[in-house]
Q: What sequence folds into this?
């Protein structure tokens, strides 16, 4: 429940103030993954999402990037928004108490005229302290910590908490947000992005997509009419929805179903977008039992209402439509690349002739699985990453930058930025 | 041929079937006018028999081999070949009461006002279904074919 | 003998211009209110005997009768209402406990009427239930903590699971399969007539939902509907043997009911005739008094023992649940019941109906079902055990809107009792305990029981279920939901109106005008 009575009305510019307004989800999603774990520039994702400029209204945009911190690839990294110094101080105290901070710094940004009043945005690379607690896994501890900060410290919001990944989001068109965070200078093997069309003017940076927890990130086009049910269902397992947007609950459902309840990723759509009872009756009897059982047990995890979502995690990119397909979703493959988008145009923009392009059915998932082996060399830029360089130096210099000349990469055109 | 069948387990003894029969065969056909203004008592053609808490409404069965038609000395009682309804032609009736004596169900009664036979069900030929069936508040009377009646007895299923 | 002081509650107005002295009213009234005087050719009515059941008014062919409430029984007094005065008069005459029937009619807040449902506009399309699939199938029973399965992919299967075979390893507990989230509440054979029981059983079977035997055991003519009947084990254990337990689709242990929390049931000896004595397995003419507690359940651990005993007796093949009244501490009580092993918990609220109950208890004991459901759902979720039992709400569900609101507050399904009887003809005169029900429902008098035609009763119940189910689908579609499991406990689709902060907090809903 919103703490409406406690908000200091004078602090109108704080994220805390804006977090009271829940804004219906907006309208453009786009994702690219390279299944061979080859890393590419964020500029491609920015390019793609900018084609769908009309689907947003400039009040929300964001990206999730995987594989962008190769020097810290086994360490946890938090991206955190702060309203003020007090929130930062309290949060850093908590972090110091529970983790060993390898590096904490403000995320580098450039000034863009259309991005106004950003909050303080920091990132921390951490190792857990290992207090000797063996009852819960490291992931459970992280989840508890994130819930605690978001709920209990006023003005602080952890927006991503994974390993070798990060979420960059805020109020603005997605292409502006991308430039603001200098995402073209990062390289990752998977990028998802989102543009919003909220219906009231609010400066709530935390409410933009993607939403993340641990290695999960979710971008969503739609509105979840089962939000109340889903929210109560996950709250019984310790997940608190604090970010005033229904998409948040999808992230928690995935963590709960896949990580904790150990439902195979290839079966999750049977819970989130269950087939109709009349379809279940027509299926062969073995499968019918499990479909029925999944629906009976996880009825409260069913996502009702129109949606197309792109979910990212360390090892795969996953997309799903609601079971009666009330929102658009297009997918395409080219070589090792899988593209997913709300519209075909962005795909064509970054990849002129895909091998295969299709419109998935309602309730039918699209999964791109990233292979375990890492390809250590960089993509045709000729510059190899020196992994034994000191981590701080690498990060401060903005990671590895792409060769500025126009390159042709497996059929892409990379624009010089 | 459709006939009226009675489910005596549902007859509640309210006698509304008699009332509506009387209204149908009155001059005005309006219930209040018929009872309050028409001074002549109209006889209902259906009769509710009661013993204890059992009751049921009975009227002319329009028998296939109607004894009343056989017994009628003036030929007033006739079974219509097409509709199967047994009717009494009042012009021809002489008031001998042979039909009353012979009817095995006792459903013919004498009309005291005109000394002629009156009380005989005519299956409300000019209505879609007879008014007693239409107005029974507990649907104890049913208007149906003999085959339909057999089916409902055997299966004892409820109609939907 | 001393003067009887009670005033008539009703006044019978007979329009002499319309009355045709057909005597239908005289014949139909089981309280002998009307009398025909052949000399005067008029009918006289005795107001003091009238109970307001409206039988005569309904059957009168000319509409000559009007039954009016007497507003002016006594001098106007906000504090000493006419019902208080009449109760004292009756008690001064009889010296006994004042009985009444049906649910409480006191003016406590009805929270259903202060809750509003949502609809989607613009940001989310509403769904047309007549053209799109709209699913209200519901399952009642224990859900496991998680699911174990193994997948066997067929060779060369592509994306999506359409080509894989998946085998379920977890065994699901037995479930009741409802085609609509509405079931018929427990009404015993004895409190209502056989025709009423059979109408409920047939309608439940045909529609795909369940009815409940109540305390009275299952009549042998109703065995063929046993797959759609929940059998009740009440404190008197009437009719309970292993046969009975194994026949039913589920077993419900009745600890209490909303109309009379804390006390047991009572069927007067006059109503215990042949058939009823056979079904309940007690001698004819004896009062059937169910004791207040089950004399083998004095604590929560005893309840756990009984639940497991019943599960053993039926070879763990049926859901076993518990029915309790909604009382002040219903949240921890429900939590205890769930932990004791119940597969479902029925909560019967303050306004639940009954065939006979002391009036003071019916009107003053218990809490409304809306608050009970909200707080039980909240408490079970906090403890992480909500999935272990289904919650069934009972106690004056009056319309399909109440059903939707109950599910949005946290119930899995609802029971309807009074609504079902009203569909069959009840006019809520609250005199069920006299056994003189003019509509043939709450009586065993053979003259009166004929008045409920089985075919008509079944048809009306099916129509009620069908009508409500369609309305539920319309409302779900309007809110952009196409499966009822997405409405369960979805408080975001409810808003309160004219409720204070505490009430909103307990119900867990916002006030109308507040957004997400």
A:
């Amino acid at each position: 429940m919103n703490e409406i009575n406690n908000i200091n009305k004078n602090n109108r510019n704080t994220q805390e103030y804006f977090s009271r307004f829940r804004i219906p989800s907006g309208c453009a999603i786009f994702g690219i993954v390279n299944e061979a774990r080859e890393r590419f520039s964020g500029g491609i994702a920015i390019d793609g999402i900018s084609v769908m400029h009309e689907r947003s209204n400039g009040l929300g945009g964001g990206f999730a990037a995987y594989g962008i911190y190769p020097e810290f690839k086994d360490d946890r990294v938090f991206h955190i928004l702060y309203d003020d110094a007090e929130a930062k101080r309290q949060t850093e105290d908590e972090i110091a108490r529970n983790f060993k901070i390898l590096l904490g710094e403000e995320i580098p940004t450039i000034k863009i005229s259309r991005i106004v009043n950003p909050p303080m945005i920091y990132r921390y690379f951490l190792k857990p302290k290992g207090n000797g607690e063996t009852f819960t896994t490291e992931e459970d501890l992280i989840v508890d910590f994130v819930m605690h900060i978001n709920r209990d410290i006023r003005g602080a919001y952890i927006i991503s908490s994974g390993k070798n990944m990060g979420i960059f989001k805020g109020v603005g068109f997605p292409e502006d947000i991308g430039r603001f965070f200098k995402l073209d200078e990062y390289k990752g093997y998977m990028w998802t992005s989102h543009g919003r069309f909220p219906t009231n003017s609010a400066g709530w940076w935390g409410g933009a997509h993607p939403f993340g927890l641990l290695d999960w990130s979710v971008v969503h086009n739609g509105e979840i009419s089962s939000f109340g049910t889903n929210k109560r269902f996950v709250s019984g397992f310790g997940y608190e929805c604090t970010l005033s947007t229904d998409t948040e609950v999808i992230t928690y459902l995935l963590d709960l179903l896949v990580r904790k309840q150990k439902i195979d990723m290839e079966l999750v759509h049977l819970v989130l977008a269950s087939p109709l009872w009349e379809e279940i009756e027509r299926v062969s009897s073995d499968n019918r039992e499990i479909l029925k059982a999944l629906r009976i047990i996880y009825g409260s995890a069913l996502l009702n209402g129109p949606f197309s979502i792109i979910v990212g995690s360390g090892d795969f990119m996953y997309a799903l439509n609601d079971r009666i397909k009330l929102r658009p979703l297009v997918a395409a493959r080219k070589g090792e690349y899988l593209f997913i988008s709300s519209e075909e145009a962005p795909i064509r923009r970054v990849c002129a002739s895909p091998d295969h392009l299709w419109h998935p059915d309602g309730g039918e998932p699209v999964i791109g699985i990233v292979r375990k082996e890492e390809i250590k060399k960089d993509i045709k830029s000729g510059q190899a990453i020196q992994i034994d360089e000191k981590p701080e130096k690498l990060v401060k210099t903005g990671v590895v930058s792409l060769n500025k000349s126009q390159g042709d990469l497996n059929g892409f055109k990379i624009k010089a930025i | 041929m459709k006939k009226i069948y009675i489910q005596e387990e549902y007859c509640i003894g309210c006698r509304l079937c008699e009332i509506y029969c009387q209204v149908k065969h009155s001059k005005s056909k309006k219930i209040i006018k018929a009872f309050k203004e028409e001074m002549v008592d109209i006889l209902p053609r259906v009769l509710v028999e009661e013993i204890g808490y059992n009751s049921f409404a009975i009227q002319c069965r329009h028998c296939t081999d109607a004894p009343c038609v056989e017994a009628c000395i003036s030929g007033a009682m006739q079974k219509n070949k097409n509709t199967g309804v047994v009717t009494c032609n009042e012009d021809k009736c002489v008031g001998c009461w042979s039909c009353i004596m012979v009817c095995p169900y006792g459903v013919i009664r004498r009309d005291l006002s005109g000394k002629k036979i009156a009380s005989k069900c005519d299956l409300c030929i000019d209505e879609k279904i007879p008014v007693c069936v239409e107005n029974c508040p507990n649907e104890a009377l049913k208007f149906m074919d003999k085959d339909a009646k057999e089916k409902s007895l055997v299966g004892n299923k409820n109609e939907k | 003998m001393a003067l009887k002081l009670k005033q008539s509650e009703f006044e019978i107005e007979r329009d002499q211009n319309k009355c045709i002295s057909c005597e239908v009213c005289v014949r139909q009234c089981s309280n002998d209110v009307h009398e025909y005087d052949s000399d005067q050719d008029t009918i006289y009515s005795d107001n003091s005997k009238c109970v307001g059941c409206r039988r005569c008014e309904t059957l009168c062919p000319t509409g000559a009768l009007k039954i009016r409430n007497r507003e002016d029984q006594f001098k106007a007094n906000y504090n000493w209402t006419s019902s208080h005065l009449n109760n004292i008069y009756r008690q001064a005459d009889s010296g006994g406990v004042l009985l009444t029937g049906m649910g409480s009619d006191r003016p406590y807040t009805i929270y259903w009427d202060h809750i509003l449902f949502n609809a989607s506009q613009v940001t989310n399309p509403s769904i047309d239930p007549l053209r799109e699939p709209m699913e209200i199938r519901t399952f009642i029973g224990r859900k496991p903590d998680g699911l174990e399965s193994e997948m066997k992919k067929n060779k060369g299967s592509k994306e999506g699971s359409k080509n894989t075979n998946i085998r379920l390893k977890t065994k699901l507990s037995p479930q009741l399969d409802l085609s609509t989230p509405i079931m018929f509440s427990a009404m015993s054979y004895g409190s209502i007539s056989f025709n009423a029981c059979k109408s409920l059983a047939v309608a439940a079977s045909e529609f795909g939902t369940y009815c409940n035997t109540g305390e009275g055991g299952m009549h042998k003519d109703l065995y063929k509907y046993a797959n759609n009947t929940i059998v009740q084990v009440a404190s008197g254990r009437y009719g309970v043997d292993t046969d009975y337990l194994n026949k039913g689709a589920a077993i419900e242990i009745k600890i209490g009911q909303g109309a009379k929390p804390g006390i047991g049931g009572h069927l007067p000896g006059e109503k215990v005739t042949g058939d009823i004595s056979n079904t309940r397995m007690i001698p004819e003419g004896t009062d059937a008094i169910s004791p207040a507690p089950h004399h083998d359940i004095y604590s929560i651990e005893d309840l756990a023992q009984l639940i497991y005993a019943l599960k053993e007796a039926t070879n763990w093949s049926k859901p076993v649940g518990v029915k309790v009244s909604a009382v002040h501490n219903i949240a921890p009580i429900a939590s205890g019941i769930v932990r004791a092993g119940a597969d479902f918990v029925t909560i019967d609220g303050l306004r639940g109906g009954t065939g006979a109950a002391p009036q003071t208890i019916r009107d003053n004991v218990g809490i409304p079902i809306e608050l009970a459901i909200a707080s039980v759902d909240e408490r079970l979720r906090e403890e992480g055990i909500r999935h272990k039992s289904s919650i069934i709400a009972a106690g004056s569900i009056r319309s399909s809107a109440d059903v939707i609101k109950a599910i949005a507050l946290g119930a899995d399904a609802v029971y309807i009792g009074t609504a079902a009887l009203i569909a069959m003809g009840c006019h809520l005169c609250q005199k069920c305990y006299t056994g003189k029900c003019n509509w043939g429902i709450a009586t065993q008098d053979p003259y009166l029981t004929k008045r409920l035609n089985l075919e008509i009763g079944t048809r009306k119940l099916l129509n009620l279920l069908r009508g409500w189910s369609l309305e539920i689908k319309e409302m779900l579609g309007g809110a952009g939901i196409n499966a009822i499991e997405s409405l369960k406990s979805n408080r975001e689709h409810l808003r309160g109106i004219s409720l204070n902060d505490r009430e909103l907090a307990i119900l867990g809903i916002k006030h109308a005008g507040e957004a997400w």
Observations:
- Chain A touches chain C through 58 residues (CB under 8 Å).
